């Protein structure tokens, strides 16, 4: 009898759990406002039972699988992750409408519960809700590190690191060694950001530099899992499941150890600093009871983790992709080198101040970013329901924008798959204002709106000076006729096969100065 009662109790629990699961997964989203808006949801392609369209987002090249989906069903689609709504935008004109009319509505992100352990807790600036903390940190970031005046103050640091980059390549050229461009570019961007923000150089001797670069690489490997968690966390957290917490905490703790040591060093020398760097500014805000917004020690650490992650790999990959395109297009290499030689000459390295006088180099950089945007997908959340492209988008719908597709849209780009820097050169018929409006519509390698990347100007500088120096100072030989341009999986757009080539010095006066 007791066994029968026990079996019945287990059966009742299973039934209750099944009902709960059915409620979480199959209940209809609330679309009562459809009538009020007088429009339907965006079209939705066929989906799988229970999971909806999750399998499309699990592709190793999600931007490519979503590109095929939009090509078949349209530029604005309504997807399901289990029972939770996702809107996929693959059209530049639709994205422009969203950023122009609904930018504030999509300025926050609905983050997974793992954010409590991600990057030193829930203190991450980039994923913070659009509010006082986000505005305060962005203001500091722009005024003290990434704004025009701040970039001018730190120009000497980047010039030093560019010389180091040149010396490293020259040393390998003399020894006829093969260079892994992505690895060397990572050192350049990582060292530059570290010095700009902390006022100190990485120590290569004690392994500090290599350790931080390794942590950034590990963090990059977790980014796709984090994006996946962002989409899945609502159904799964209700069932008590925590995603990827152990992996993320491991990287987070390692970063914490490195940054705590640097923080202590700065605190001990805070009064001695005459030229305050970004870490000094944040420590001052941390200790100021009357600060515009009170920040914690973890806020500072999270900020630097995010800064190195966002600024290091993206810049390095953009340098690598652009150099690969240049090597694969000898005519473009020839024209670019002629421009640099005529403006800069052959007796000194290219400098940041040369960039405004090198329009073709600027066009090459822009074209590289168009074809290979650092982040092919961007994710936001609609905080309120609204009307987009004639369709209704419910509140709390996740927005996925496919920037990769938007910048290869044949309706707005001529020969979109071709590497043609000339498309970014000003014509006599176009005014600068017209060009700016056109760029805002279709060119978004760094996102757009309030959540657009605040480091875009620094990104252009990193890529422009690095690519310019490599073209100015070296010829490049590769194995085979062409560089393989296959893409690797991940949240950042990376090369599946790292660009490896041998540099050959071409400017003897520069060589003699070393």
Largest sheet at a glance? 4 strands, mixed
Number of structural domains: 1
CA-based shape: globular
In round numbers, the mean pLDDT is: 83
CATH homologous superfamily - what is it?
Answer: Cytochrome P450
User: What is the level 1 CATH name?
Assistant: Mainly Alpha
Number of distinct beta strands: 11
Poorly predicted residue ranges:
1-9, 22-28
Class by alpha and beta content = alpha+beta
CATH topology: Cytochrome p450
Family: Belongs to the cytochrome P450 family.
Pfam family, one: p450
Keywords: Heme, Iron, Membrane, Metal-binding, Monooxygenase, Oxidoreductase, Transmembrane, Transmembrane helix
Membrane topology: Single-pass membrane protein
Structural features:
Cytochrome p450; alpha+beta; four-stranded mixed β-sheet; 9% strand; 514 residues
Description of the structure:
The chain is of the alpha+beta class and 514 residues long. It has a single domain (46-513), classed as Cytochrome p450 (Orthogonal Bundle). The protein contains 19 helices and eleven strands. It has a four-stranded mixed β-sheet with strand order 1-2-7-4. It has a three-stranded antiparallel β-sheet with strand order 3-11-8. It has a two-stranded antiparallel ribbon with strand order 5-6. β5 (386-388) and β6 form a beta hairpin. α9 packs antiparallel against α13 (297-328), α13 crosses α15 (359-371) and α15 (359-371) crosses α18. The radius of gyration is 25 Å and the shape is globular. It starts with a helix and ends with a helix.
């Amino acid at each position: 009898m007791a066994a029968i009662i026990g079996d019945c109790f287990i059966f009742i629990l299973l039934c209750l759990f099944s009902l709960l699961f059915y409620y979480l997964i199959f209940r209809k989203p609330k679309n009562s406002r459809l009538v009020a808006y007088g429009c339907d949801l965006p079209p939705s392609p066929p989906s799988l039972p229970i999971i909806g369209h999750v399998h499309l987002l699990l592709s190793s090249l999600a931007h490519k699988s979503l590109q095929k989906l939009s090509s078949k069903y349209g530029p604005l689609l309504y997807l399901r992750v289990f029972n939770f709504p996702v809107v996929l935008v693959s059209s530049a004109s639709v994205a422009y409408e969203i950023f122009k009319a609904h930018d504030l509505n999509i300025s926050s992100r609905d983050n997974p519960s793992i954010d409590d352990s991600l990057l030193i807790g829930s203190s991450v600036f980039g994923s913070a809700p659009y509010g006082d903390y986000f505005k305060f940190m962005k203001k500091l970031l722009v005024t003290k590190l990434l704004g025009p005046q701040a970039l001018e103050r730190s120009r000497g640091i980047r010039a030093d690191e560019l010389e180091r980059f040149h010396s490293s390549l020259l040393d390998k050229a003399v020894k006829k060694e093969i260079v892994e461009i992505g690895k060397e570019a990572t050192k350049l961007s990582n060292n530059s950001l570290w010095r700009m923000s902390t006022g100190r150089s990485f120590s290569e001797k004690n392994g500090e530099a290599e350790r931080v670069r390794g942590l950034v690489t590990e963090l990059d490997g977790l980014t796709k899992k984090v994006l996946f968690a962002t989409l899945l966390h609502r159904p799964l957290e209700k069932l008590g499941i925590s995603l990827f917490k152990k992996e993320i905490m491991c990287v987070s703790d390692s970063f914490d150890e490195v940054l705590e040591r640097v923080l202590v060093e700065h605190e001990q020398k805070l009064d001695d600093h005459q030229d305050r760097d970004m870490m000094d500014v944040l420590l001052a805000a941390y200790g100021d009871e009357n600060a515009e917004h009170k920040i914690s020690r973890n806020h500072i650490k999270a900020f630097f983790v995010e800064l190195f992650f966002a600024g290091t790999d993206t810049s390095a990959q953009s340098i690598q992709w652009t150099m690969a395109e240049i090597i694969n297009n000898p005519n473009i290499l020839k024209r670019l080198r002629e421009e640099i030689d005529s403006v800069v000459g052959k007796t000194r390295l290219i400098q940041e101040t040369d960039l405004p006088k090198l329009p073709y180099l600027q066009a090459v950089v822009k074209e590289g970013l168009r074809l290979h945007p650092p982040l092919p997908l961007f994710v936001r959340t609609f905080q309120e329901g609204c009307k987009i492209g004639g369709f209704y988008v419910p509140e709390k719908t996740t927005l996925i924008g496919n920037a990769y597709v938007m910048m290869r849209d044949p309706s707005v780009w001529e020969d979109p798959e071709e590497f043609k820097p000339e498309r970014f050169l000003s014509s006599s018929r176009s005014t600068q204002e017209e060009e700016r409006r056109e760029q805002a519509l279709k060119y978004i390698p760094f996102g757009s709106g309030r959540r657009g990347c605040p480091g875009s100007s620094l990104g252009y500088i990193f890529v422009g000076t690095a690519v310019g120096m490599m073209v100015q100072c070296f010829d490049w030989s590769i194995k085979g006729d062409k560089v393989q341009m296959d893409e690797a999986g991940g949240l950042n757009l990376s090369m599946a096969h790292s660009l490896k080539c041998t540099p050959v010095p071409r400017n003897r006066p520069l060589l003699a100065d070393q």
